[in-house]
Write a structure and sequence with these properties.
Elements: E1 3-7, E2 21-26, E3 30-36, E4 40-45, H1 48-61, E5 65-69, H2 76-84, E6 89-92, H3 94-104, H4 111-125, H5 135-161, H6 167-196, H7 199-208, H8 216-225, H9 234-241, E7 249-250, E8 253-254, H10 264-280, H11 282-293, H12 298-319
Parallel strand pairs: 2-5, 5-6
Antiparallel strand pairs: 1-4, 2-3, 3-4, 7-8
Length: about 325
């Protein structure tokens, strides 16, 4: 059951409220909600009934925008409930909000303050609303995430073998590694079956894998975590992934261009593809060698190859024409 809270920054009596902005701080057990410009704050439990109550309540308010932080999946049910009711909702990167907090001098941190900050972020920044992936895309994403988790556990367990001497512990590690290897193979089979049973995904997979350097893991990650591929411009896609270079200039000073934010897992897989691509893909190899010859650090050249690869993949999906090697 919801608990009513106090009001912050409430408008003066007689003020007409035209636009409503909502910030929601998502925790495992509760949802702290702040509404601007009324300043209303309340708490709802993060459960199936609680999510339904909150979604209905916000639907009745007809807010201009609702903003939540990405919290590793805890926010998914609420986002889906809001979307199903036609509420405009955006899930933002935590780093964006932290930078906004620093810029506005709001450094104190509690769940209610976080909710108020998210509501202010919604009002001042107005991040664009993106389409929520279909159920099949979410299911694919869950499987891809689980495979990555299993692979990460395999790496950790194999690393532990180097520092453990007790035979009983080593035997336990070997047994767990065997189980994880078996589970990884099973997940690969499940993902392959999922691809084969969906004609659209199978076509997209074949298009993406026609590009030298792009393998099945990269392809699955792109399909699951970058549904905008082929739908937006190359520049927009680079910004989404976190490959767009940001200026750090002030006066006559020209700082180094850097990349940050975006979808880290997609970026990691593109890095792997680019490393392979500079060996097997003539276009990426040419870009890499040209930049290195100009004196660019190899890391900078590799990021440029990642960006080039993303643009190529975006164009291929948009045109539905597979990679054509240069003659």
């Amino acid at each position: 059951m919801s608990k009513e809270g106090r009001h912050w920054d409430a408008p003066r009596e007689g003020t007409q409220v035209e636009s409503i902005f909502v910030g929601i701080d998502v925790c495992k057990a509760r949802l702290d909600v702040a509404i601007r410009p009324t300043g209303e704050i309340f708490v709802e439990e993060n459960s199936i009934p609680g999510v339904a109550r909150l979604a209905d309540r916000l639907n009745g308010l007809d807010p201009t925008l609702v903003v939540l932080e990405a919290t590793g999946g805890l926010e998914r049910e609420l986002v889906l409930a809001l979307v199903q009711r036609g509420v405009r909702v955006v899930v933002v990167n935590a780093r964006q909000v932290r930078d906004f907090a620093k810029a506005t001098g709001r450094l104190a941190k509690t769940d209610q303050l976080d909710a108020m900050l998210l509501a202010l972020f919604a009002e001042m920044v107005r991040p664009p609303v993106r389409e929520v992936p279909e159920e099949r895309v979410r299911a694919l994403g869950d499987l891809v995430d689980r495979r990555r988790q299993v692979v990460d556990m395999l790496v950790m367990e194999r690393n532990r073998l180097h520092s453990v001497r007790a035979e009983a512990v080593r035997a336990d590690l070997h047994a767990h590694i065997t189980y994880l290897e078996k589970r990884r193979i099973e997940l690969d089979q499940e993902l392959k079956a999922l691809m084969e049973t969906d004609l659209q995904w199978r076509a997209q997979r074949d298009l993406l894998m026609s590009v030298p350097g792009v393998g099945p893991v990269v392809t699955l990650t792109l399909l699951a975590q970058l549904p905008e591929l082929g739908q937006v411009s190359g520049k927009q896609l680079s910004a989404l992934v976190g490959l767009a270079p940001f200026n750090r200039d002030s006066g006559k000073s020209r700082g180094r261009r850097t990349i940050w934010g975006g979808r880290a897992e997609v970026r990691t897989k593109l890095y792997m593809a680019a490393v392979t691509g500079i060996r097997v893909n003539p276009v990426l190899r040419e870009v890499f060698q040209r930049l290195v010859a100009q004196g660019k650090p190899k890391k900078v050249a590799l990021v440029a190859c990642m960006r080039k690869l993303l643009v190529i993949l975006n164009a291929i999906v948009r045109s539905q024409v597979p990679w054509r090697p240069r003659v």
